[in-house]
Amino acid sequence: MVPVADIAEADENWWYGEAEAVPTPRSIASHLALINDVDPAHPIILSADGRLMDGMHRVVKAIAEGRTHIPAVRFTQTPAADFLNVPLYDLPYPDDGV
Fold it and tell me: What is the pLDDT of residue 14?
């Protein structure tokens, strides 16, 4: 369990950092649906230095519910990235509409 207050990325521009990515009502609604659907029992994933690698929707749900801690797993050594400097929409993952 890690303190939600220690997750610095919760105060960063996590989803809309790219120049062409802007928050729209539709994109916010998509994120809300994902936030509502997450299972808070599944841990977030942190890098060796404690940075969030996966699980922002779970973090937002924890914040919204007023929880102070969230389950997490943390790498002892951060693995190399599969992709570097590749725009989100050029990644070879299914388009989830977000």
Answer: 84
